[in-house]
């Protein structure tokens, strides 16, 4: 008998509602490195999986949006801690997905950790920037404050498997929204590993849901879903982006159009403020 041990090959699944289901269709697809070598099989999500992810996100929304901003910031910081602890694994996955050198891949992971910390710091500050006491001509207080939009679906950028992914997801959840994200079609493994980090952190199940598979198959189901409130088209090619933007008009989703972005650059506040609604309250003076 041979004494050679067979390694346990990892099965990369979806991350929906805090669990790791296979696609309901039973399908998977091969993921290859930029160099051409086979890496693994990843679950190929169906439209039904996309709808299930939206249901999970909606279920998690009341609790997550009702949490204090301080608490959301602490939770996101905890994700950064765990990502830092698995730095070597993520560097290997990013290196294979993006064709980077070992040093550059490690730098991408460091930037992703820093990006999480950066957004965590905004959790209890963004409403101070977006809110205001408005001047009015009358015996009233007029106060504006920001509230989360709801369920936001994001198409992660194809070329930035980890840093781009975090750059579209973090601003969604830190402001109290819940997220469904379609991972990079060609480099989904860092996204699935991020799901493992989220599952072992303090992020409640359903706050972030990760789908892997063909973007052209998943995205239309998300764009047309009537219980989705926002759509980030960062990872959609031109023709598909126009199709999805048209589908999003049926329930007046907030849409963030794709544009050429340097994911390593300072992110700014565009994505933070885009997924917030402004609520204005009038109150009589002296009451």
UniProtKB/TrEMBL annotation:
Organism: Streptomyces humidus
Superkingdom, natural source: Bacteria
Gene Ontology terms, MF aspect: oxidoreductase activity
Keyword entries, A-Z: Oxidoreductase
Record lineage: Bacteria, Bacillati, Actinomycetota, Actinomycetes, Kitasatosporales
Record domain Aldehyde dehydrogenase: where: 34-256
Record bears the keyword Ribonucleoprotein: no
Pfam families registered for this protein in UniProt: Aldedh
Protein name (Swiss-Prot/TrEMBL): Aldehyde dehydrogenase
Keyword Oxidoreductase included in the entry's annotation: yes
